[in-house]
Amino acid sequence: MAATSMWRIGRKAMQIFGFPTSPYVRKVLVIAAEKGVEAELVEATPHKPTPEFLAASPFRMMPAMQDGDFTLPDSTAIAFYLDAKYPDPPLLPEEPQARGRAMWMDEFADTILSNSARAIAFNRTIGPSLLGLAKNEDAAAEAETAVTPALDWLEEQVPEQGWLVSDYSLADIAVASCIKTMTYGLDITFITSRPRTFAWLERVFQRPAWIEVTEKEVAMFKEAIVSRHHRSE
Ligand SMILES: N[C@@H](CCC(=O)N[C@@H](CS)C(=O)NCC(=O)O)C(=O)O
Known about the structure:
Glutathione S-transferase Yfyf (Class Pi), Chain A, domain 2; four-stranded mixed sheet; binds glutathione; 7% strand; globular
């Protein structure tokens, strides 16, 4: 992989450490893009942390953020920081029940969905193509079974129109980002067989911020595969 990769999103400068196929890293990049904040993605890996990454993320988890002298790890913490610093457009609902529900959806994404999403993607695609690991179909299939009740539950929560909680919010970004990572290793019928979820994901992925982040993510993923291929020649 290249040592650093630059993303320029919007107008204002800050650094995000991580790799964009991570659901948590993508979540933060999409939030920055939605708010028109200029973000530089500095490629970082927990396995070989740079001093800058370690300073921002003491437990080597990605993403972490550096904004001037201020550093912060954790996607949800960064989401709160960005929403407070750049309130337009707001991504945390004001109304108490909507706020609570958006936080629950964020938590649902970050714990219940994420573990399976990462196992599916890592064992089928990301580990083999980026780290040269053997595919582990058993682990991926186990994760697919584990995530099925969560996706079935989500299908019941998704409205026919609009967004997960009142207006478009952190809830949509966090959950869609997890499913996006999952699709790196998933037969797409796993999602298309859930029509409300599929239609909602299409609404999310058509947003300009998502298109921008996804295009850069695909380019960076391909570049990392090519760079790994050259190193192993
Ligand atoms: N709660 C954290 C979770 C971050 C996280 O688990 N990131 C993964 C990558 S997807 C990671 O850095 N794992 C490294 C490790 O576990 O050593 C967040 O929301 O940012």
